[in-house]
Amino acid sequence: xxxxxxxxxxxxxxxxxxxxxxxxxxxxxxxxxxxxxxxxxxxxxxxxxxxxxxxxxxxxxxxxxxxxxxxxxxxxxxxxxxxxxxxxxxxxxxxxxxxxxxxxxxxxxxxxxxxxxxxxxxxxxxxxxxxxxxxxxxxxxxxxxxxxxxxxxxxxxxxxxxxxxxxxxxxxxxxxxxxxxxxxxxxxxxxxxxxxxxxxxxxxxxxxxxxxxxxxxxxxxxxxxxxxxxxxxxxxxxxxxxxxxxxxxxxxxxxxxxxxxxxxxxxxxxxxxxxxxxxxxxxxxxxxxxxxxxxxxxxxxxxxxxxxxxxxxxxxxxxxxxxxxxxxxxxxxxxxxxxxxxxxxxxxxxxxxxxxxxxxxxxxxxxxxxxxxxxxxxxxxxxxxxxxxxxxxxxxxxxxxxxxxxxxxxxxxxxxxxxxxxxxxxxxxxxxxxxxxxxxxxxxxxxxxxxxxxxxxxxxxxxxxxxxxxxxxxxxxxxxxxxxxxxxxxxxxxxxxxxxxxxxxxxxxxxxxxxxxxxxxxxxxxxxxxxxxxxxxxxxxxxxxxxxxxxxxxxxxxxxxxxxxxxxxxxxxxxxxxxxxxxxxxxxxxxxxxxxxxxxxxxxxxxxxxxxxxxxxxxxx
Length: 621
Hints:
alpha+beta; 6-stranded mixed β-sheet; 23 helices; 18 strands; elongated
């Protein structure tokens, strides 16, 4: 774990800092929500003429249903214009609550009709609705046929104009709402957990958050706050086993609500796939987190121009500095970053489980470490031809997720990612952003996919890229587990036996390729024995080793000497016997050793013009 990262867990009082951080974010960025308004999903409209004549019912298509700000006082009181169907079309068996809401709605519309032409037009329709039962029943049938439920919100359109978007009722309603909103007469003063100042705690319902991710909306905190007690009126709602008192004022709660809604609704402040909310203290800070979870970069090593104009536009000077390992100017003045984990366990609920925060410099350094750990040298292919080598880094976290996926043909890829990785998906993001270890599920998946790839008789260009990403994943996994000698290219002095066993197997495959019949074989040693070599190395190597002298005897003297030296050097690192079994870490080291030794053979052939034409086509990576 990075020493710089500060983590606040739920189930203790420090969880409240998450609310404080979000509160401070809202205050700093001047975020607020419209007073006496609430976002509602309107499912249908009653269409009226300018004189209040009924023109029909219009259902909003499901794909066009959006959240719309509507006049609203509190959930316990009726709303203006836009209400649930059951509070406009009262059913005969309505309960006391529905009857009270219906009466309240009618009284409010009647009073407002004296000040607003829009409300006056709607009131003419409502009067007819009360007076003519058959007329009301016919509209009920229209709504039933359209699939409108009693709990669905409906509104009015007058001459095709939505009533909730008109302005002639605004001044009257704001004054009416102010006069009829609950008054906080509770005299006890408590110390706010957010600001540390004396405040009057909330005694009415907490404001609902209506971010897109929240479904129909969720209360910010516990609904148990109706118990009039300064210590128990503001519980942290979800993610906690026991309620934790978090007293605050109405204004503070509304600020938290505004901040949380903004973070949940803004693509560059949250990632639902990984369950992160994130932001920076400075508005103008270069957004490292959004970019690294979406983009990939590779840097040329031998003059091969791989810079794409469109990609260059996407990187700020800071992000470019992260990739290149140089120092960005003014990095120390970028302030702090904040990342909060969140879940949506079910519709209408939210859980804030942990907060990570630190300086922008620390985030910058952690990302540079990820790029260094994931760097890997590989061939550059242009139009199916090898044109040199380049150092690649993993800047796109989704590349790891997708390449390690078992069922790549799934119709719902995101669902498949959730099924296969679960919470480990978030662990991968933490490894990238905070320097954590990579969850071993990705090492297991990457080694399995690599094995399948090498067992295939032919690799296509897109499969070669996939293999590289898998090898990069293996490399960063091993480095984070203490395998510090895993390099971007071949390391003959690595301490892992699995790594050198992979090298030995690569040398065996190379010896077969250089034999007279190497190109005409239906299946190579790798195709037949790669999986077995990782699962039962001692048994498999003993069997394959018998073919070594056969292949060496078919080579020219120069090639034979060169291969014998390679086998001798590798065997010295392995010791007197091959291991019986490999751990999952050693299997990953085997994959890396095999791939990098193969790369070394290719690089050597590239320097030898006599061998280059024939050997280049044999290289499968």
